[in-house]
Design a protein that fits this description.
Number of strands: 18
Number of helices: 10
Distance between the termini: 10 Å
Helix content: 25-40%
Largest sheet: 7 strands, mixed
Order of helices and strands: EEEHEEHEEEEEHEHEHEHEHEHEHEHE
Oligomer: single chain
Strand content: 15-25%
Length: 372
Amino acid sequence: MRALRTIVDMSYARHFLDFQGSAIPSAMQKLLVTRLSPNFRQAVTLRRDCAVPLPGDVELLVRNRFVGVNASDINHTAGRYNPSLKVPFDAGFEGLGEVVALGLSASARYTVGQAVAYMAPGSFAEYTVVPANMALPVPSVKPKYLTLLVSGSTAYISLAKLAELSQGQRVLVTAAAGGTGQFAVQLSKRAKCHVIGTCSSEEKSSFLKTIGCDRPINYKTEDVKAVLQREYPEGVDVVYESVGGALFDLAVDALATKGRLIVIGFISGYQSPTGLSPIKAGALPAKLLRKSASVRGFFLNHYFSQCQAAMDDLLKLCEGGELACGVDLGERSPGGLFTGLESVFRAVDYMYTGKNTGKIVVELPHSVSSKL
């Protein structure tokens, strides 16, 4: 068996071998954004005849085994993150797999066969070229490690940098049973805070209790505003907010004196043409001033240099059994498990029904080609 470390002048007319001795094809499937739209199905096309890319000197070629689905995928397909992008462009930005080839400079840190997670454009593909500095080594190709990358790091870094957590404080996490909410709950509990989490079902409420949430609120059966006013009359010290719209307004009103509201998203508005849901922003300055409170935005791309350190800590907690990494592979979705690139469409739809518990992950099975 031949293990390729570098590839130079390789023709797409023939196959080459991956680290297991099976053939890496010259063509692959991937998802392309062919029209700008917050409607994922309208924006994205599955292409089955794309060339497998070759890594440059400081790049890795990763065979994707699992890809992460994020609420913000439709912000990407709508062109909101980079308005200069022209269609077609690659979809997806979070993957987990094995390095099957790499450039000479990249081989100083990585080896063929190594498991890596990464944040880089084009993850919704069978193979992705990833800049070596955008990849993070993980112990093995297990979907739980993918939950730590975008979702876990977002919670870890935002809480560490913006929340100013201290023992005994009250923390409200919205969409608490989702991909990133689950980590905000657990990390807040590790800081010895009292954690309140909103969710949409009794199943999710039960899940939240297993990861330490002190007061799950199922907003389908309880009035969130009434619960907060009755049980937390002095307000909450920190809100970890990802929903937006009416829940954002409610969270502002629930802040205690010197409270901090961290905005990590506003999923309620992503599917609209403007990307925003109406809020009562006119009164916001007065409300914040009256409480000496603050609203702080967090976008992971601005903190990428800190992701390696965050991942190191999260991996230790995960491997030590101190952090639950909820993964939703679609077992309870109407169409069953999310398997193959074509199921990414279903996975995005599923996310926007609000039914997922934990991080939504799609598996890309590898069909071993005959050896050369």
